[in-house]
Task: structure prediction
Amino acid sequence: MGKVAQEQRSQSKYFSLAESGAARDAERMRLTKSLSIIGGLLAGAILPAQAATSSQNATMKAVVLRAYGEPEMLKLEEMPRPEPKDDEILIRVIAASVNPVDVAIRKGYLAEIIGNKFPLVLGMDAAGVVEKTGAKITKFKKGDEVYAFFTLASEGGYAEYVIAKESETALKPKAITYAQAAAVGAAGSTAWQALIETAKLSSGQTILIHGGSGGVGHLAIQIAKARGAKVIATGSTANQDFLKQTGADVAIDYSKTKFEEIAKDVDVVLDSVGRDTLKRTYGVVKKGGIIVSIVDEPAQADLDAHGIRGVTLRSSPKADTLEELARLMEAKKLVPVVSETYPLADFNKALDQIATRHTRGKVVLQVADEPRS
Ligand SMILES: NC(=O)c1ccc[n+]([C@@H]2O[C@H](COP(=O)([O-])OP(=O)(O)OC[C@H]3O[C@@H](n4cnc5c(N)ncnc54)[C@H](OP(=O)(O)O)[C@@H]3O)[C@@H](O)[C@H]2O)c1
Result:
């Protein structure tokens, strides 16, 4: 498939525009709505790059967006290294993960939420070593190995240094690499907040996970198994073994089998696909059960007709979520899978991969060498 065709296909779920003008407007509205679902965390990840500089005029390399648009709008540049305020931590980034939303941001699909405050540094999460702490920081010290999922007060992770708050940072588990820790920030928090905080998944329940082989999905499968749930997960033909290896009790190849022929009376659904998949999901949920969608809005009429609940989740950076995930990783119950790493300079290759919407596990930018422990 050519690059352009691949790009078009990859964006189809959110970004494909219908051919007629009216349909295009409707699609744009739907897109804006869908993207606003993740707006809370997005706005946090992307901030103007002109943060306060250190007194020594230190600089760093960062992937900088100066206007919305095509991949050429992103450039690896030398820019001032941010200086932490009293309640902030400066992290030397070892790895940063690449999320589907990064592509949408570059294209300007979230301009209404983010605004036009250029230059911007992309990247919603990162793992690295604490370089410097502000005067009010008590939980972390220079040299700590940490990972973070960013909020409004933060810089982007596609850089050699990034600013984080204590409330969005946790110690990196020793058992995993920085690349794996970076992979968990946004995707793992989303999976945890969907399954545990929102759906209150419990032992013995059955969960259907749409998109089980992706960044969020492969972590959700493991979180659900650690909770003692039975997991049914969907994925393409190429990912059937991966779904099983990740822990799914039942793997469904969505290209060959309708999930509703196999999944019946489930307690919880994690929807990371939306649209037609969501429409076909209402009927497989047990009365009193719940659909948590991270990409779409469950229709109240359909929920009522089936006697079930539905929630659209916007995940948000929280240190306690990261600490829960870290505990699972320490216990080896959660093992993030990084299918590909790219050097920071190859950020556009990493973004091309995530834009396929068929990434297995996570794609990560390896910003610096993994330190030897
Ligand atoms: N609301 C929030 O807070 C929030 C947070 C994070 C992510 N998100 C959104 O959630 C979505 C998933 O994120 P992600 O990071 O997991 O993306 P990802 O890493 O790109 O994974 C997407 C997965 O979807 C699978 N897939 C594609 N079409 C499918 C279908 N018809 N049925 C079942 N699976 C299908 C793909 O598997 P195959 O390759 O096997 O097809 C792929 O593994 C994205 O749209 C992202 O923007 C929302």
About this structure: Residues 10-176+336-366 form a domain with the Quinone Oxidoreductase; Chain A, domain 1 fold (CATH 3.90.180.10). Confidence is low (pLDDT under 50) at residues 1-36, 38-55. Residues 37-38, 41, 99-101, 186-187, 190, 210-211, 213-217, 234-236, 239, 254, 272-273, 277, 294-295, 313-315, 354, 357-359 surround NAP (CB under 6 Å). The two ends are 43 Å apart (CA to CA).
